[in-house]
Write a structure and sequence with these properties.
InterPro entries: 3_dmu_93_MTrfase, Glyas_Bleomycin-R_OHBP_Dase, MTase_demethylubiq_bac, PhnB-like. This is PhnB-like domain-containing protein. Pfam families: 3-dmu-9_3-mt. This protein is of the alpha/beta class. The protein folds into 2 domains: about 60 residues, 2-Layer Sandwich (Signal recognition particle alu RNA binding heterodimer, srp9/1); about 50 residues, Signal recognition particle alu RNA binding heterodimer, srp9/1, CATH 3.30.720.110. The strands form 2 sheets. The protein has a 4-stranded mixed beta sheet with strand order 1-4-3-2, with helices on one face. A hairpin with a 2-residue loop joins strand 3 and strand 4. It is globular and about 55 Å long. The two termini are about 30 Å apart. About 20% of the residues are buried.
């Protein structure tokens, strides 16, 4: 039986870093892969070879991304983040470590009143991740 099509998809807009971001994200999470990539060709609006439109999955959830051909005065903000429930201590440590290397730690991995193990990090692209161990 085919699974139902995902109705709401997170859409991430980059300016030349979409493929690098997808490679990072799919390397962090198990059961993750780049599904499709359409690239700008010569004489198109975006830089040739950059991502016109792509889809990737992380643990069964599909995401879309692009490299915008238009420069914007905005980027990602921590006000919206991807919330990840990690199943093991090893997983939360691994998932926190990679984005934190070149990113920004908003809340270090630790014990908080609302969670025994939680961390909040923004990766080098500006995408914000809240990571929680267990339910």
């Amino acid at each position: 039986m085919e699974s139902p099509k995902q109705k709401v998809t997170t859409f991430l807009m980059f300016e030349g870093q979409a493929e690098e971001a997808m490679n990072l994200y799919t390397s962090i999470f198990d059961q993750s892969e780049i599904l499709t990539i359409q690239r700008y060709g010569p004489h198109e609006a975006g830089a040739e070879g950059s991502v016109l439109k792509a889809t990737f999955s992380m643990h069964g959830q599909t995401f879309m991304c692009i490299d915008s051909s238009v420069k914007h005065e905005f980027t990602f903000t921590p006000s919206i983040s991807l919330y990840v429930t990690c199943e093991t201590e090893e997983e939360i440590n691994r998932v926190f470590e990679k984005p934190a290397q070149d990113g920004k730690v908003y809340m270090p991995l630790g014990n908080y009143p609302f969670s025994e193990r939680f961390g909040w990090v923004g990766d080098k692209f500006g995408v914000s991740w809240q990571l929680n161990l267990g339910g």
